[in-house]
Structures are given as C-alpha cells and as structure tokens.
C-alpha cells in the first residue's frame, strides 16, 4: 500500500532529475517545487543546448524570464537568480544521445548517479505531424535511455514517465488505466517490434540521403513515414504511436525500478497555480480558439455532443508530485494514471463553442487594422461527408472561380486568392491531424487518480497546495475568466 505523508516533507531535501526542462509542463513543475518547497536539495534540469552557458541562457530565457515565475520574482526580488542557482543544476544534454543522456561532464554524471532520487521524464516531441526519426528517437528510444540512466542511480526511489492518454488511439467507451504489452497493437495486426521500427526509419533515411534528396524532401518523406507506420498498427499519428511504444518498452525493461506512467489528456492553461490562465504556445484546442477569435474559423467539424477531455496544466503537475511520493520505493511496481476530466467532470464540445462565442462577442480581437473582429456562431458539421460538401461549395468552387477571374484580370485578386488558399490549407491540415479526435468516443477512467486523491484526503496531505480534483473546476468560469483570456494574453500575437 502506498505511504502517504506530507508532500512538502517528501520534497524537502530531495534530489530530482527533470528531462526536457524547458517544456511547458516541466517549467510549471520546476516553478511549483521551488515555490512551495524552497528546501528542495537539488533539481537537475536537463535540456538541449551546445554547452553549459547556452543551457543556462536558454533556461533563463525560456523559463525564469516568463510570467510563470512572477510570484518567485516578487518573493526573492534581486536574489531570485542566486536562489535558483543554489537549488538547480542546469545541464546541457539530450536524451536521444544514449544512456548518459548526452551529458559530457563525467564528474557530473557520477554525482547524478550518486544523488538523484526521482527521475521525471518530460522530454518529448508532442507534434502530431513530426518526422518519424525525430518522434521515434525522442519519444521511444529516448525514454529507454532515461530508464537505463535511472537504473544507475543508486538512491532511485521512483521514475515518473509522462506519456499521454491518447496512446489509446481512437478506442471508444471507457478506457482503463492498463498497460500496453510489448507488441500489442490497436488493430490486432501482429509484427510490431521496436527494432523493426528503428530499422525501417534508419533505412528510409539512408535511402533518401543516398538519392541526394533535399532536406525539404527528406522532411516530407519522414513525416509521411511516421503517419504510415502509426496507421499500420492502428494509431492515428506518430506522436501517440511513439508514446505507446515507449510505454511498452518501459514496462518490459523496468526490472525493479518503481515506474509511474502518467497519461494526461488535453492540457490547458493553469487553473490556479502559480496564478490562473498561464499558457504557452498554441496547444491542441487553442489553435481553434485562436482561429475562431481571429475570425478564421467559421465552420468546424465535430460531434457537438462529444465530450472533450481537458485538464489544466497545474492539476497535472500537482498529481505528478503526489504520485512521486505515493510510489517512492515500490520496487518493480508499475502504476498508470489517467489525469483528465471526462469521467469526473465532463464537458461537451458545444459548451466550449458557447463559451468562445460569448467571450469574443464581449471582447473582440482587434486586428492589424485596428478593427474589432466580429465572430458569429460556428457552423458545426457533424460528419466528414457534410464537411467535404461544405468545403467544396463554400471554398473550392469560389477558389476555382477566383483563380479564373484573377487570371483574366491580370492578378488583380492575387492577395484575396492567396488568402483564401491559405485559409483552406489551414483548415484541411487541422482536420487531417485532429480528425481522429473530433469524433472521439472514448472517456478516460481515472480510478487510480481518484483513489490517490481520496487516500491523500484521508491521510491529510496538503491537497489545498496540490489540488488535482477535476470536480473543483467550474467550466464556464474557467473558460470565460481564465483560459480564453490566458490564450488571448499569451498566445495571440
């Protein structure tokens, strides 16, 4: 049974290695620990950079300088850098570079193997449309390197690997917190093998280079290969495919390492910590928020009654920290956590649309010309066929017509034609990538996460500081007053 004591006490004097340290979740994780437990012993933060100075600069620019760190800045003022440098060691490295994780300094390696107690693997590429070599090397082979590194840490208490709920592919119904076994596929086709995948990827790359293909051609071909390999075994894209492969291999190779596999759903802006609404980069559903607010999205494809599973980033981080404590020292165990809301506090796509409509009606986006963009109700198309018909009628025919007129009138409508062309390409690409999720009928059972929360409540741990209860979210309030304003502030450019 898990030992639940004070989370803050668990973090005190603790040494933690975080990979992918400048990623969205990783920064929130690091900020949280530094803020709530300043007596953490050491955070080793691994990130890609040429050398130590470049790594330091990157961490400062991409993490410390952000709004995310403003509470720490208010608390420490001019002493913030000193405080952070005492608690962290910024390490240039790369999890794709073998089991030393690309760390060149042998003294530092020895020190890490001696000191590190918790390993948190957050290094990944989350791009649905990534090259296959990049996805496989980072998401799958990289995860194996992190596991092998963790095995060398003499004080290791737990390895926390952050995966994604969408390793389930397009399954419908209740999806359980169960592991994938080596070679298991979503469509029942046998022959899935990581060595084969690696070989296919390497040989394709070799062939392309041998033919003297341009970088552009290689990138396009490697993206196609990723989609092809994923879809062959029933996954919709290379991101979720390579994340599923990683889970399989970690489960198979873990030996006596206590392994926690963490599967968040769609991650959105922070709910309350360090303050509501912090977000960075265009995350999954935010491309829709941005497209809609800027007046680019007039029709949308999807089942209006579909439940969309979203979870604020700080809740994911809070749950991560609590699971680290809960599974410390459970030799050889493997526990999977779904962190989402579709079971305990579901929200339908239609409600999201309503929130967006009301928000942008009251606070329209001001375009480059200084004019407010007036949004209307989105035309929701509830099947692929209706979407194709709609696109043909409203866009492809006018585009064809415009192309003819434009040619006749010596390119007079060139700008308009290109603009329409760009809009259509934007929509088509979004649909191709997100299509599988627009009619998604799965909901993610989060029994393990709920059990952990209840056990934490009974044990009296600091669930006010580490809130991960989906039931505490009022969706209308969160979208109208936190998430959409956050996206407008940090993402709209």
From TrEMBL:
<comment type="function">
    <text>Catalyzes the reduction of fatty acyl-CoA to fatty alcohols.</text>
</comment>
<feature type="domain" description="Thioester reductase (TE)">
    <location>
        <begin position="18"/>
        <end position="320"/>
    </location>
</feature>
<dbReference type="GO" id="GO:0080019">
    <property type="term" value="F:alcohol-forming very long-chain fatty acyl-CoA reductase activity"/>
</dbReference>
<dbReference type="GO" id="GO:0035336">
    <property type="term" value="P:long-chain fatty-acyl-CoA metabolic process"/>
</dbReference>
<dbReference type="GO" id="GO:0102965">
    <property type="term" value="F:alcohol-forming long-chain fatty acyl-CoA reductase activity"/>
</dbReference>
<comment type="similarity">
    <text>Belongs to the fatty acyl-CoA reductase family.</text>
</comment>
<dbReference type="Pfam" id="PF03015">
    <property type="entry name" value="Sterile"/>
</dbReference>
<dbReference type="InterPro" id="IPR033640">
    <property type="entry name" value="FAR_C"/>
</dbReference>
<dbReference type="InterPro" id="IPR026055">
    <property type="entry name" value="FAR"/>
</dbReference>
<keyword id="KW-0443">Lipid metabolism</keyword>
<keyword id="KW-0521">NADP</keyword>
<dbReference type="Pfam" id="PF07993">
    <property type="entry name" value="NAD_binding_4"/>
</dbReference>
<dbReference type="InterPro" id="IPR013120">
    <property type="entry name" value="FAR_NAD-bd"/>
</dbReference>
<dbReference type="InterPro" id="IPR036291">
    <property type="entry name" value="NAD(P)-bd_dom_sf"/>
</dbReference>
<feature type="domain" description="Fatty acyl-CoA reductase C-terminal">
    <location>
        <begin position="395"/>
        <end position="493"/>
    </location>
</feature>
<dbReference type="GO" id="GO:0010345">
    <property type="term" value="P:suberin biosynthetic process"/>
</dbReference>
<protein>
    <recommendedName>
        <fullName>Fatty acyl-CoA reductase</fullName>
        <ecNumber>1.2.1.84</ecNumber>
    </recommendedName>
</protein>
<keyword id="KW-0560">Oxidoreductase</keyword>
<keyword id="KW-0444">Lipid biosynthesis</keyword>
């Amino acid at each position: 049974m898990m030992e639940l004591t004070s989370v803050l006490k668990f973090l005190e004097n603790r040494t933690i290695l975080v990979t992918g340290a400048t990623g969205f979740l990783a920064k929130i994780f690091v900020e949280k620990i530094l803020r709530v437990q300043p007596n953490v012993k050491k955070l080793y933060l691994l990130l890609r950079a040429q050398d130590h100075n470049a790594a330091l600069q990157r961490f400062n620019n991409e993490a410390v300088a952000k709004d995310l760190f403003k509470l720490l800045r208010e608390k420490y003022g001019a002493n913030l850098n000193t405080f952070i440098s005492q608690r962290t060691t910024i390490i240039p490295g790369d999890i794709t570079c073998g089991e030393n994780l690309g760390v060149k300094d042998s003294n530092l390696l020895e020190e890490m193997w001696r000191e590190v107690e918790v390993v948190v693997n957050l290094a990944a590429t989350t791009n649905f449309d990534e090259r296959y070599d990049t996805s496989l090397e980072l998401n799958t082979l990289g995860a194996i390197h992190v596991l092998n590194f963790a095995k060398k840490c003499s004080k290791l208490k737990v390895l926390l690997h952050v995966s994604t709920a969408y390793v389930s592919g397009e399954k419908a119904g209740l999806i359980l917190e169960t592991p994938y076994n080596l070679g298991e596929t979503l469509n029942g086709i046998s022959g899935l093998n990581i060595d084969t995948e690696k070989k296919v990827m390497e040989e394709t790359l070799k062939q392309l280079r041998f033919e003297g293909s341009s970088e552009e051609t290689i990138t396009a071909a490697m993206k196609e290969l990723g989609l092809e390999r994923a879809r062959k075994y029933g996954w919709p894209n290379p991101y979720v495919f390579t994340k599923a492969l990683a889970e399989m291999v970690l489960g198979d190779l873990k030996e006596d390492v206590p392994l926690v596999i963490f599967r968040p759903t769609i991650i959105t802006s922070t709910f309350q910590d360090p303050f509501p609404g912090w977000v960075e980069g265009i995350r999954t559903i935010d491309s829709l928020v941005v497209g809609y607010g800027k007046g680019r999205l007039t029709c949308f494809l999807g089942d209006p009654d579909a439940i969309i599973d979203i979870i604020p980033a700080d809740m994911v981080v809070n749950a991560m920290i609590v699971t680290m404590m809960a599974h410390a020292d459970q030799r050889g165990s493997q526990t999977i956590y779904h962190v989402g809301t579709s079971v305990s506090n579901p929200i339908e796509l239609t409600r999201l649309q309503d929130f967006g409509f009301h928000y942008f009606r009251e606070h329209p986006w001001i375009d480059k010309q200084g004019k407010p963009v007036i949004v209307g109700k989105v035309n929701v198309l509830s099947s692929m066929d209706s979407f194709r018909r709609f696109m043909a009628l409203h866009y492809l025919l006018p585009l064809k017509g415009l192309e003819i007129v434009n040619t006749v009138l010596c390119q007079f409508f060139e700008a308009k034609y290109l603009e329409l062309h760009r809009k259509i390409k934007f929509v088509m690409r979004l649909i191709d990538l997100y299509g599988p999720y627009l009619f998604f009928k799965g909901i993610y059972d989060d029994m393990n996460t709920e059990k952990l929360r209840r056990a934490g409540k009974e044990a009296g741990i600091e669930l006010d500081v580490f809130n991960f209860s989906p039931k505490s979210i009022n969706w209308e309030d969160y979208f109208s007053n936190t998430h959409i304003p956050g996206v407008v502030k940090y993402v709209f450019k």
